[in-house]
Amino acid sequence: MTELTLARPPAHTQRLAYLGTPEVAVEPLRALVAAGFDVAIVISGADKRRGRGSESSPSPVKAAAIEMGLPVSDQLDDVLSATVDLAVVVAYGRIIPVTILEHVPMINIHFSLLPRWRGAAPVERALLAGDTETGVSLMDIGVELDTGDVYAESRTHIADNDTLASLRERLVRMGATLLVDSLKQGLPAPRPQTGDVTYAKKISSEDLHVDWTRASSDVDRLVRLGGAWTTFRGTRLKIHEVSVASGQGAPGSVDGLVVACGEGAVELLVVQPEGKAKQDASSWKNGARVTSTDRLGQ
Asked: What is the pLDDT of residue 51?
């Protein structure tokens, strides 16, 4: 069997391709352009419906590329004819075929400290797991997902009040800086990933379903992830903000705005009843006439 030989990134580069699609991939693209790199082509996801309207719209990366006057395509094969030194990949959303990796050297910004949290949702999983530290890895792209050697990394502490939005914003900013600095200085020799491997599968709706038998710290982290929900009198209740509180009782039982957990309790601060707007929890409590006999999760 013929052994695969992937194109290797040069130590120094100037002419780039950029592959990315969502909002998190916009800032690194802007940083590269601001730093004076020649972005010969941007490859992004195809236009699609992104709201309730019938018309399709460009991805955030495509919109940014057009604004900056950069050539942009949704055809991955176009990177082959762009004559670039290197392609930078940030949340592109597609697996890169070996037939392209053999001809175009590629590096990737991954939002975790590899090999912890390989996969689609590294920021979400780090926050949900209660990790105290995470970061950004600048890595080689290999045939298997997120297994490439690491050129550089940047670390950050996960604060007790970090939300998914605040943590992601910080990591994107760190990633853009790490990328530009590494390319300006010249890519160092990469090192293999070492340590325990964990996988960050996508967050599902059921993952966001509050389990009141868990500790209050677990519930707090889930809420800070965004999209947490429970049930109240048979209808869905979204929970947007809580604070860890003292309290006890059967998991899910309500005392004022304090909900008992398997260990400790949380105080509801901002909620959203099914079919209604987001509101402060006290207004919801008064309107719903919540009593001590009510129990969330039922």
From this structure: 64
What is the C-alpha separation between 230 and 207, in angstroms, rounded? 11
Architecture in CATH for domain 15-200: 3-Layer(aba) Sandwich (3.40)
Domain extents for the chain? Answer: 15-200, 206-288
The pTM for the full model equals 0.93
User: Tokens 């006290």 appear where?
Assistant: 282
Separation between Cα atoms, residue 210 and residue 228, nearest integer Å: 6
| Residues 6+ positions from 175 with CB-CB distance below 8 Å | 27, 28, 90, 109, 111, 136, 138, 154
Distance, CA of 160 to CA of 173 (rounded, Å): 20
Amino acid identity of 207? Answer: D
* Residue whose structure tokens are 């992104």: 50
User: Residue 194, SS3?
Assistant: coil
Domain covering 206-288 in this structure, CATH number: 3.10.25.10
Pairwise CA distance, residues 44 & 248, whole Å: 51
Q: In sequence order, what DSSP letters do the residues of 88-145 get, joined into one string?
A: EEES--SPPPHHHHTTS-EEEEESSSTTTTEES-HHHHHHHHT-SEEEEEEEE--SST
Q: Which long-range contacts (CB under 8 A, 24 or more apart) does 55-61 make?
A: 59/21, 59/22, 60/21, 60/22, 60/23, 60/25, 60/26, 61/18, 61/20, 61/21, 61/22, 61/25, 61/26, 61/29
Q: First and final CA of the chain: distance in angstroms?
A: 58
Q: How far apart are CA 158 and CA 131, in angstroms?
A: 7
The answer to whether the beta carbons of residues 135 and 155 sit under 8 Å apart is yes
Taking only the tens place, the pLDDT of each residue in 181-204 is 999 999 999 999 999 999 999 999
